[in-house]
Design brief:
The chain has 357 residues and is mainly β. It has two domains: 140 residues, Methylamine Dehydrogenase, Chain H, CATH 2.130.10; 177 residues, YVTN repeat-like/Quinoprotein amine dehydrogenase (Methylamine Dehydrogenase, Chain H), CATH 2.130.10.10. The chain has a four-stranded antiparallel beta sheet, with no helix packed on it. Strands 3-4-5-6 form a four-stranded antiparallel beta sheet, with no helix packed on it. β21 and β22 form a beta hairpin. The protein is globular and about 50 Å long. It starts with a helix and ends with a strand. About 8% of the residues have low confidence. Keywords: Membrane, Transmembrane, Transmembrane helix. This is Photosynthesis system II assembly factor Ycf48/Hcf136-like domain-containing protein. InterPro entries: BNR_rpt, Sialidase_sf, WD40/YVTN_repeat-like_dom_sf, Xyloglucanase_GH74. It holds the Pfam family BNR_6.
Length: 357
Amino acid sequence: MKFSYLLVILAMLVLIFGIILPFFIGTNKNPTSATTGIFKSTDGGSSWALSVRSSEIGIALPAHILSFEFNRKNPNIIYLGTKGGSLWVSKNAGATWARVIDAKENVSKSAEVYSIATSAKDEKLIYLSVYQNNKGEVLKSVDGGITFDLVYFVPILKYGVFGAAINPENESRVHIATGEGGFLTSSDAGKTWKVDKWFPDGLISLIQNPARGSELFVLTPHGELYRTEDEGASWTRLTPGYASFSNAASITDIRLDQNNPSTIYISSEFGLLRSVDSGTTWKEVPLIIPPKGLSIQSVAVNTKNSREIYAAAGNSIYVSEDFGENWRAMPMNVTASIAALRIKPDNPNIIFAVVGK
């Protein structure tokens, strides 16, 4: 009788720890058994593992990722902004993830987090651009995400805030881009704001040059790209430089080369373009994908070696080790499309891919 009880207990333990518990907390599955999620490579993209393990039992990592940012002070800290699942964080370079719970409840658990800005000097300083309460808001944390305070909200309902940036040379200066077309600046760390420019269209992205804090780029839904070199005082329209490339205005990603501050890549339905003069002129980067065959969804540059470029198209990654002259394909064995690529700033062998965004 005792032996039978032992068998029953053993079977229950196998069921709990072998099947039920991994279902709730996630597992590092082989890519062939999963179709969406965050995938991680530690060998420059040769092999991949699913990186979705949640430290909260019963809470799964949301499938729709809107933003992916390394902490600029400590790149082992990674933030994910999700659609309807709020902010998530990994403090161990993507090994495990946890939802960030704001103790003040200013960040809703169902918030859409469109951008995350962190400090190069203080790893606890964070600005979020979120959509919640039927409007866009900017929230600030000075304690690493334990608490957040509201520092800005759009005056008109249904409009969002889609970008935030901290000037690395003067972190009291913060910039945001809104769906109303506003580029705003705070000179006192978010206490007050002023409008530098109202654009004729909404803004959906804000990119800052990390090597030149005064240089920023904004993008509109219709593929209009603008650059400022003086934190918003004046602007240059960059669209004419790539207008001759068919469908190049359908921009999917914008990446700056950390080793060469004047080099920028844009991916689009056209393919891949590169500028070496901060966006004034553009040239095609030839790929081994047929013209108009697949949209390039994301681009990434090796943070230590500018000659190594990654491009995502469909469910495959393409890599060049000679500045785009020659390419090789690296299939990921997933069925969904790869939406974003991110290379760890301090270790370019570590690459993350967002699949099925």
